């Protein structure tokens, strides 16, 4: 990062080192769980492109546990923040920027194992003749196809415990933010059972905001893997696979229509293959589909997708 003399420096080397270590720790644990290795794709933007920088995409397809999943690290620099990044900060419109983060989505093969998303990121705007403006974002959310109360409670409790050292307000506030964000407004329907979400965050100051972001990233494996182990051996058939594909269709709709991360990546000229890594391998859409009353599929809509206090 380049700053003018006298301006505050941002420890991007420290942030980058931790993000790379987080990616490696997560992928190592997921490879052990799946039994198959992740593909490693290191990439670098060509000189002269709109967006500069590079990253490491780690991807699995047709694994034993994960039908498709990826854990991406990216570190990019651009000449002007895209609209999605300045919607809440109009005073930074047009500023150069640097962004880095780890983002992941896992689509398991077994419909009883939930899809999960997690990301942690840092954004640094470089407005002319001003100190850099740094903020953080991140969180994780769970998208089950078949609901289990103990799984929902576990996932939310781990997130609550990770955020507790940073204030009693953080979990309920970020939980509400997640419920509101991961919501398909065009269908009046939640994407899943939520988790935590925060963005444009620097209110604790740089050091504590960064430590809070790290705490969320560090909590991911503890939040997700115990659920995987409870559900991965459950028997399923064509009915469950068909419902999984239907709900994956909702996942696609959210990511393409509402997700700020997808919009940021595409608006800034990001790497399309990495941005759309989050898409499931198979999804379906059925006209006016309604699950039969009293079924496990119907319970997802009546008992799990409506906003609840899980802890």
Automatic annotation (TrEMBL):
Positions of the record's site feature: Important for dimerization: 186
Pfam families: Coprogen_oxidas
EC number(s) per entry: 1.3.3.3
Active site per database record: 117 (proton donor)
Keyword tags: Cytoplasm, Heme biosynthesis, Metal-binding, Oxidoreductase, Porphyrin biosynthesis
Catalytic activity: coproporphyrinogen III + O2 + 2 H(+) = protoporphyrinogen IX + 2 CO2 + 2 H2O
Cofactor(s) the protein needs: a divalent metal cation
Subcellular location(s) of the protein: Cytoplasm
Binding positions for a divalent metal cation per the UniProt entry: 107, 117, 156, 186
Pathway field: Porphyrin-containing compound metabolism; protoporphyrin-IX biosynthesis; protoporphyrinogen-IX from coproporphyrinogen-III (O2 route): step 1/1
Region (Important for dimerization): 251-286
Main location: cytoplasm
Residue sites binding substrate per the record: 103, 119-121, 269-271
GO molecular function: coproporphyrinogen oxidase activity; metal ion binding; protein homodimerization activity
Alphabetical list of HAMAP family matching this protein: Coprogen_oxidas
Family the entry assigns: Belongs to the aerobic coproporphyrinogen-III oxidase family.
Oligomer status and interactors: Homodimer.
Protein name as it appears in the record: Oxygen-dependent coproporphyrinogen-III oxidase
